[in-house]
Amino acid sequence: MSEQQTNRDYASLHSVKATLAEARATEEAAQAAIDAARAALQGQKGRNTKAPRRRVKAPKAAEPEASELDLEPQAPEQEAQAPKGEPTAEQRKAQRKAKKRAARKKGRRVLAGLLAVLLTLCVLGFGGYLYVQREKNTLEVTFYHLQSDHVSAPFRIVQLSDLHLKEFGEKNAELIGYVRALQPDAIVITGDMNNHYNDDVHVVTDLCSQLVEIVDVYYVFGNHEWVDHIHRHTDIKAKIEATGVHLLENSFETVTLNGTPVVIGGLVNEVGNYETYDAPAFMEDFMAQAGFKLLLVHYPEYFLGKLNGYEVDLAMCGHTHGGIVRIPKLGGLYSTDQGLFPELYEGMQTVPGGSTVVVSRGLGGDSKIPRINNNPELVVVDVSWY
Ligand SMILES: [Fe+2]
């Protein structure tokens, strides 16, 4: 290599170094511009200060390599064109999709909740229906004991009330079986065995015909028989009497139950009509009789005032259906003539005046409200001197 050639190489090398120095200076100038731009962006409230790092390089797009940047998708350009702090079209689209997904998810949750509530109500309703059906067909026997000085030998009375055409088995075979098994000395019926809007009373007459085969039956009308007999002029009285029961209409009979004389009277009037049909005269005559006095009267309300001047050994009533719905610790909910939370609606108690009153909850019902916690009731009263 000649000296001249070597000098040209050195000159070329210096030229390259100069070019590199110039490029470094250009880069430093660009960095200074970047720093200035960043400082300016930081001064803008609410703007993203990190974004410019990439965007500051955008001017290099004018350089030869920029052709590669031109091939990038359109979206970044749109993003770059969107106002700073505002969502891009792509972001808005994504947000709309997210909102739709959230709405669909919420809708599914609400629908699932409604279905769960509906299913629960159906289960509870069906369970309640089964409970009511089972309860109204399950007989309950209630035993009471009454001590009386007017009794020489013990006797047992079985009471049926407020059947309202209900049947326990074919022709009330189950009910008859219970009564027969209880071996009563007398059977008493305290009214409302029919429904006054139904002329077909074969359920009542079939029952009475079987009961009289067990022992003597003493029957006093309730308001339903009374309406048919007095107001609708049906032949219910003749049909019931034809079964062989002792129908008591403001009248009494003196009988002997297991060796003890018992006067069994039947007061038929509704409380509001007590002054009619010689009821007061009947009561005076009845109370004048010697021996144990058993009064059959459909309406327990008589012992909330009207008959509290009489001391009856035992009065047996019905009419209240046990208050229809028996609420624990509160008692019966409703009875026709006593309203909400009736006072005399079930059980045996001594009322003012000294009478002992038994109120049957009855065997059926004519109310649209189902009996709840209130099984059909057969009442048994054992009376003795001890
Ligand atoms: Fe009644």
Describe this structure in words.
The structure is a single chain. The protein is an alpha/beta fold. It folds into 3 domains: 3-85, no CATH class; 87-136; 140-384, Purple Acid Phosphatase, chain A, domain 2 (4-Layer Sandwich), CATH 3.60.21. It is built from 10 helices and 16 strands. It has helices at 3-42, 52-55, 66-70, 74-81, 89-136, 173-182, 202-211, 223-231, 236-241, 279-287; strands at 140-147, 155-160, 186-189, 217-219, 246-247, 251-257, 260-267, 292-297, 314-317, 326-327, 331-332, 334-335, 339-340, 347-350, 356-359, 377-384. The strands form 4 sheets. A 6-stranded mixed beta sheet has the order 1-16-2-3-4-5. The protein has a 6-stranded mixed beta sheet with strand order 6-7-8-9-15-14. The protein is rod-shaped, with a radius of gyration of 49 Å. Fe (ii) ion (FE2) is lined by residues 192, 222-223, 298, 319.
- In the CATH hierarchy, what is the superfamily of the largest domain? Metallo-dependent phosphatases
Could you give a short account of the major beta sheet? Answer: 6 strands, mixed
Secondary structure class reads alpha/beta
User: Do you know the CATH architecture of the largest domain?
Assistant: 4-Layer Sandwich
Number of domains: 3
At a glance:
The protein has 386 residues and is an alpha/beta fold. It is rod-shaped, with a radius of gyration of 49 Å.
